[in-house]
Amino acid sequence: MILKLNVRGALLLTAAITALVTLAAPARADQCDDIAKQLASGIDKLKINFKAANIIYLTHPAAKELSLGCRAQGKTYANELYAKGDRKPAPQFYDLAGSAAAIIFTLPKGDTTTGATRCLKRMGLLRGDKVSMRYKRLNMECTRTKTDAAIAITRPKDE
Questions:
Q1: Does any domain span residue 9?
Q2: Contact 105, 155 (CB under 8 A)
């Protein structure tokens, strides 16, 4: 009888401790969602549209498409910013890409705006419609079609 009481008490104590630890552990939000919220609060007129898999789609008047890609298993990058605009982007598009990259990759806005502008302006007759460059430890890939220009900015995992 005494043995049953001790086992029962130990089980109740274990269950109570497990419940307390589970309740006391902070709920972790997805890091990608946190970055998207920072983007929405840091850039005027930027809105979070929806999330699908590891990509959060965003909207802004200066861009035709805007998305934030987050880390997936087996990928070589941590985060990716993708922005698509007109073939000849307006200054607002350069500013949007630079501001978003500054928030995502925690770099100064001037540096990221300069890198995005250089990448997008290098496309043309001499260099073609696809330009890849590296600026301030960021990989930038700019592409152009007959109607659109796009930029994808990533940082490798190991940096």
A1: no
A2: yes
What tens digit of pLDDT does each residue of 104-145 get? 999 999 999 999 999 999 988 788 889 999 998 899 999 999
Please list the residues that pair with 154 across neighbouring strands. 80, 139
Number of domains present in the structure of the chain: 1
Distance between CA atoms of 159 and 150, rounded to whole angstroms? 24
**Are 94 and 115 a contacting pair, CB within 8 Å?**
no
Retrieve residue 109's tokens.
Answer: 């806005």
For residue 104, give its domain range: 31-156
Residue 73 CA to residue 56 CA, distance in Å, equals 17
Whether the CB-CB separation of 59 and 46 falls below 8 Å is answered with yes
Contacts of 51 (CB under 8 A, 6+ apart): 32, 33, 57
